[in-house]
Design brief:
alpha+beta, single chain, Lipoprotein, 369 residues, 5-stranded antiparallel β-sheet, globular
């Protein structure tokens, strides 16, 4: 579909938006099998088909891993990058949230154009209803993120107990570790059985009693067994699969020198609307790094075109998450890369067409520090 057709589709969707119960959301600008996408951003030029198809596949994959049916009602995704708390749909935290209004309106609100943690909440809540906070947040992190429990408090059982009285971001990693351990040891069916047993407002005593009734093991013993393990989030590294997106070839020893002309219809190229001062479109491109070392990255403009707002090279495995390199505003950046596959995310400027141009130079400038 060309950019003009996308604009007409967006305009038609605007007339259809706002017909749902619950808070008066921003207009619908695009939709897919499971998602109605809302935003107050400038939707004059969109590129969302590929992105929403991938979000649909993520939703189906999540439902399969959780052992439930995919959503039967639309998931209303509200991209609100500048939440000020006054909107009826806004999150109380001012960042990201999932809301289920009267078991009818299923809504994700996020500052991010795509946020899988909240989409997991949508899948789980539609299929299983509301659940205990530690279980549902743990599931959202386990199935919808690339976080890990590699860094946990030394005393995991004590941290788990403390999570019942203190609610903060640290609880998410504790919850991820607990839920991921349940999935790995017992499978999705036993997780669902525990979830059904435990009331949403259960304290630690009630939670422990229901856990022992379901698993035949004291919770304290199970927590001790879980200690020392590492649980990894099950989301997929975007653009990292074989053949998923264009691979930038090495043009000389230790040098990638490439010109990129990205446009709507390319894999992993998308645009969700314009916000002042932000990128207009995003494209993902793969790079195979053969030799570890220090690398310099420059992502600049082509001919007289503007430079991309950013270029960010990140690794395709948990072992590589600590390495990467960024180029901002056309300036050269340096960073350490391990050997393996990386994905370069380019933030292209806003423009009248869903396309972007960039020059990319990646050069090995030294050994590992």
């Amino acid at each position: 579909m060309n950019a003009g057709a996308r604009v007409r589709l967006a305009a038609a969707s605007l007339m259809l938006g706002g017909c749902h119960a619950g808070p008066d959301m921003p207009p619908t600008v695009a939709s897919s099998k499971y998602i109605e996408y809302h935003t107050d951003a400038d939707a004059s030029v969109l590129c969302m088909d590929d992105m929403l198809e991938r979000e649909d596949r993520f939703i189906e994959r999540t439902a399969e891993l959780l052992g439930v049916v995919p959503p039967t009602k639309p998931v209303h995704y509200v991209w609100d990058p500048v939440q000020d708390g006054s909107e009826a749909w806004a999150c109380s935290s001012g960042t990201d949230c999932y809301k289920l209004h009267d078991d009818d309106l299923s809504m994700v609100v996020s500052r991010r154009a795509s946020y899988h943690h909240e989409l997991v909440h949508a899948v789980e809540a539609q299929a299983l209803g509301q659940g205990h906070r530690l279980l549902v947040e743990g599931t959202a992190e386990y199935l919808g993120s690339l976080q890990s429990s590699a860094v946990l408090p030394a005393d995991f059982p004590a941290a788990f107990a403390a999570a019942f009285s203190v609610s903060d971001d640290g609880d998410y990693r504790v919850a991820l570790h607990f839920v991921g351990s349940i999935f790995a040891r017992h499978g999705a069916a036993k997780y669902r059985a525990l979830r059904e047993r435990v009331p949403a407002d259960a304290d630690l005593t009630r939670f422990a009693a229901e856990f022992e009734a379901e698993f035949g093991q004291p919770l304290a013993d199970a927590l001790a067994e879980m200690s020392g393990e590492v649980v990894y989030g099950q989301d997929l590294f975007r653009g990292c699969g074989e053949g998923e997106t264009r691979v930038l070839e090495w043009t000389d020893e230790g040098v990638v020198d490439a010109a990129i002309e990205g446009e709507c219809g390319d894999p992993f190229f998308y645009g969700t609307g314009f916000v002042r001062g932000e990128q207009g479109f995003v494209g993902l491109y793969a790079v195979e790094v053969a030799e570890a070392g220090t690398y310099a990255l420059t992502v600049g403009g082509v001919a007289d075109g503007p430079a991309p707002l950013r270029g960010l090279l990140v690794g395709c495995s948990f072992d590589m998450l600590g390495s990467g390199v960024a180029s901002l505003g056309g300036r050269t950046g340096e960073g350490v890369l391990q050997a393996g596959r990386y994905v370069l995310s380019i933030g292209f400027p806003q423009g009248p067409q869903a396309r972007g141009s960039a020059s990319v130079r990646l050069e090995r400038v030294g050994p590992l520090p």
